[in-house]
Amino acid sequence: MNSSLSQxxxxxxxxxxxxxxFFIILTYLLSMGLGVLIFFSTTEGLEFSRESVVRPLFIxxxxxxxxxxxxxWVFIFCFVASWKYRESLSSxxxxxxxxxxxxxxxxxxxxxxxxxxxxxLVAIIVLHLLQTxxxxxxxxxxxxDPFYDFLRFSSAPLTEEIVFRITPIGVxxxxxxxxxGKAVKTDFFQSRRLKTSILSVLQPxxxxxxxxxxxxxxxxxxxxxxxxxxxxxxxxxxxxGVAHYLGGWGPGKIxxxxxxxxxxxLAYLYYGIQAPILLHWYFNYYFTVFNLSVDYFSAGIDFYSxxxxxxxxxxxxxxxVMIIFGVIAIRRILKKxxxxxxxxPEPPF
Length: 349
Prior knowledge:
Layout: H1 3-41, H2 43-49, E1 52-53, E2 62-63, H3 64-84, H4 89-97, H5 109-133, H6 146-184, H7 190-202, H8 204-211, H9 216-224, H10 227-246, H11 252-271, H12 274-296, H13 303-337
Helix pairs in contact: 1-2, 1-3, 1-5, 1-12, 1-13, 3-6, 3-12, 5-11, 5-12, 5-13, 6-7, 6-8, 6-10, 6-11, 6-12, 7-8, 10-11, 11-12, 12-13
């Protein structure tokens, strides 16, 4: 495949993925609005919002409605951060409209989120099917009250990410960047090293770049993540999977949750603290809202089936795109490594 054809194909696929990402981002915003309406405008939701519940973030009972609004604003803050982080969504869109596709779709957290989440969704579905065929059940958690479950599922993206990603990986990053700041940057004062180590919990890439350490954006996934970070990624992912199994799921949930946990951790390292919370939000809040809307606030529209379908289609398209450009990259590498044919000398007679 020549370079001009490759660039044309890349631009065409880029345009499709950009449009698909924007469309799914709109469904994210729709789900945020629907969540508030379902919780506070339906009879069942309004009654539940007045109750007191015990949630992991609080020692005492808290009003269910106030807790939901607290979580809702946390998610809004994460969306704003994902819009702005690295390269803003508006600047990436302007670049593409002006003809510049350099840097790809993954430089903005919010633009990349539909691509990453839909690919992960397809991978989990495939894994689920393979495990089911092998007799490994995923199981399910029993439904109690739909609005209690909605609040519980909405709480998990924050509480579980704090426990399984942000705290263990964040403490490691703080220690690593503080020590590395002293070793790599001899002119770093202790106060500046401390600020950088705190920044590493919020934005690991930015903190490591300030010190001069290798980053994912400059050295790729395998060059920008050191071996100790890989250990933390897989260790926390394993704990995440086991926690789901101990929480009432079947043994098949261990691998599925562990896969999700590894992707959440990588997103944390690359995009920052808001990324794993939003990816977790996608699986818990996003689909739960649309599922509840079918029964409580849909006006005859099945948002759940629609959102499920478009996300699966985007995920399948992304896997196809990854395979296509993976093959192109391998062919280029092999072509560069292929020894040049030596010219055959003319016979001397």
